[in-house]
Amino acid sequence: MHFVKDHCSEDTCDLEFRSQKVNCSKLKIIKKLATVDLAILRCREKKFPQGFKFEKDFNLGLKKGKVTIYLTDSNLNVIQKKGKIKWNSRLMYVISTRLTFGSSGSPVFDENGKLVGVVVRAETPQQGLLGKIFPGYKFSIKAVKSKYIKSIMKGNPRMPEMIKNDLLNHYRAYIRNKTKFDRFLESLEFTKLVNSFAYDFPQTSDVLTVREGPFWQKIPKVNSRFFPLIMAYHLEKYGSFDVNPNVLDSNSLELLKTFNSTRYFGQQAFFLGSFILGLLILFLTVFVAVVSSFASLQKIRNGG
Questions:
Q1: Does the global pTM surpass 0.85?
Q2: pLDDT classification of 155: cutoffs 50, 70, 90
Q3: Which of 16, 164, 30 is closest to 90 using CA atoms?
Q4: Which of 1-10, 96-105, 160-169 has the highest mean pLDDT?
Q5: Cβ partners under 8 Å of residue 228, min gap 6
Q6: Distances (CA, A) of 41 to 12, 15, 108, 155, 160
Q7: Cα–Cα distance between 262 and 251 in angstroms, integer?
Q8: Helices in 212-249 by DSSP H: which ranges?
Q9: Higher confidence at residue 45 or residue 138?
């Protein structure tokens, strides 16, 4: 999906796609889902040969098994990379395989040859940044689960509910277990995912309020089926300040209690704390420099 955002306008991508069997110079966007960073493209000039066959069983129980990732090198040769599942949520896998920038979209297969995922990004934002800056830098990866491909292609009317539940599962199992700077980076990625969810499903009016800041006076019913997701978003972005636990349902209350048990206070507090810490370090640095300079001048005056 990030490839589509960078290289396509409207529903057309004027780029050349080449493989051993196909040479296509124009691609059309059929469907897209920003939350899981996937887009379905079709060649406008020539049909592709039969692609991967989707089985009913997507092996969602795959936890720490071995996988194989297929990608192409600069000469368009198909190469295989082996790896292991390091971590698993209902939304995505974290895989040990170390790849380079540009590997997004590569399919991930289990040991039985079933498609289980699609590479979407580096394991951590800082690794992804280094991959952009330094060509050839390798990093472990995240892959979204293949069930979303089938849902996008066939159209699943329950997709908003499914993705909402998967986002909450991902948040509970992965994001809020991080600490310090890692927590901050994963928190930024999570709030970006929720904003993408709002982009994908604009008809879900509850979710649109995440773009408007604190939402306590903007949502008429806190028992909305999407409220726990918005609650998680609010906590990560603004912290638990001014949250009234007496109006929360059990899911949202659990999110609040767990959040308050950590030492993370939200992105805004992290920004403010980092800014204050930076000012203190700058002040101490200047103070030490001034004292050192003053001591040196005194030594010179005293003929030392």
A1: no
A2: confident
A3: 164
A4: 160-169
A5: 168, 249, 251, 252, 255
A6: 9, 12, 18, 15, 22
A7: 18
A8: 227-238
A9: 138
